[in-house]
Amino acid sequence: MLAYLAAISVTAGIYALMALGVNLTWGMTGMINLGLAGFFAVGGYTTALLTKSGVAIPLGVLAGGAVAAATGAVVALVTARLRSDYLAIVTLGFSESIRIAASNEIWLTNGSDGIAGIPGPWRGAVSPMQFNLLFLTIVVLVLAAVFLLLHRLGVAPFGRVLRAIRDDEDVAAVAGKHVLVFKVKAFAMGAAVLGVAGALYAHAMSFIAPDIFAPLLTLNIILALVAGGVGNNAGAVLGAVLIVALLEGSRFAAPLLSFLSPAQFAAARELMIAVLLLAILRVLPDGILPERAGGTARRLQRPE
Q1: What is the domain range of residue 34?
Q2: Do the beta carbons of residue 48 and residue 160 sit within 8 Å?
Q3: Is residue 134 part of a domain?
């Protein structure tokens, strides 16, 4: 049971990292990024290819974040003039393009069979439970470091400029701020966090395949951020933990719904999770921990 809880906690920590990355681009800068699964995949595949060829795991994780950051900067430059729904559609298309490419470029990613045997820190030298606890410690340390870094950025002049761009980029430009530069920096940093999360996932699971990076992953992280509170880093982490708790906790409802077939129970789980999230957002439309300025989450979700 302890090993299971540790493994689930690792997943929650990785989801929290992803939510923090999305919160930087969406919650702080106002750029709706639905390509997070693509950056997650870039980080995972980068570290998998490097570490299987003999590169040290820490260097592989850093490389995953760096390659994802570079990819994010390119995407930001290409989509610089897009806003709202158009940006969301293009970034979602980017994510799907990465997944399709990973499925077909067998020479690089081994196609739909995925890459197995990705090394993990001390995997094989310790028991599975010890490995899960060890990796959980690593994820928590990385999560804490990223959280503190993004918190410092949020209260620094850089963060204030990002919020000004989110509220009205034309006013920020008139005030002398180079909006494109700040957007590219924010997008690249958010992508880097997503890439690191993907790299950690690859080393935790020892396997990655294109199916892992389906749009449902993006949906879960967006739901986590909305439920926790858009624009609030603590809300992003709380929302990620809540989503993982709902996804895993709903499995234990099987004895109560024994009259359903496995397929029907899977659909019922999705329905239960959706109803619980709707109830949360009905009572707390700005999320459980809304941004202190108030009303930001609701305004960000309103179509222009």
Answers
A1: 2-212
A2: no
A3: yes
